[in-house]
């Protein structure tokens, strides 16, 4: 195997992993600032200018806290749970195309760890594995509230994965590919898939809220009923892993939505900018635009959390099984009919 190829991929993986952790870390700060803005208060403002060092203070606090493992827990699985949740959250970024191929000293380097032809299925596989970290942690804690929370999380994820998968089928009818890079390349200029699949995007976005356990779908963590949820018995950085995994999942979900429906790194006037900026800076500018789309979705996640109240559990299940799944099936049928008519005429 080419040594330079391995070094390039190692550097790219390291950079993406670091970016994911930094965004997750500062999403906690942004969440508190957005909540403070919506509630007409200041939010964190002590650690550093404007409280900008608050995430570092929280991280140090997590590392310095005492490690507590309940005596009645399954100790090995108790340790595996948060690690698995964090691992599944991070590996989803491997197939995301972060920008066009960049040219450095005449050598072309893709800004994507790997472009597999079933990248979309890979994302769904990783997402479906994430619930195991929650289930293992809730069961291994040997706490009835943690177990109830884990069962809620599993049933919620299974329910909404069906509607999410059906919404993607309609998108596949339009794109005819499972490769994320090919899907992005088809969305040049303003040819974004959200224009052709508005209902599919809406279903996918609602399911993303449920898959990441974000409000108003945060039933696995509701404090009033479950005393904190599946990570109630966790402390120190094991608790930090669960909290970090949620924010990384939010980042990955925002990335996937921007990739599938909003053109990824594409933007109007892209070819013109390429002639001005050159083969090095033009892809980086596209990546910058991509991250602006991602940050917009992250802000939307936070805005919804501090605006809409939590569903009851029966409302959550009714929405998933009786509303979203029928809508997703109808979207597939309508999309198929429209494509057939367009091809015939």
TrEMBL record:
It comes from the Bacteria. It is a multi-pass membrane protein. PROSITE patterns: COMPLEX1_ND1_1, COMPLEX1_ND1_2. Its EC number is 7.1.1.-. Its main location: membrane. The keyword Nucleus does not apply. It catalyses: a quinone + NADH + 5 H(+)(in) = a quinol + NAD(+) + 4 H(+)(out). It is found in: Cell membrane; Membrane. Belongs to the complex I subunit 1 family. NCBIfam families: PRK06076.1-2. This is NADH-quinone oxidoreductase subunit H. The gene is nuoH.
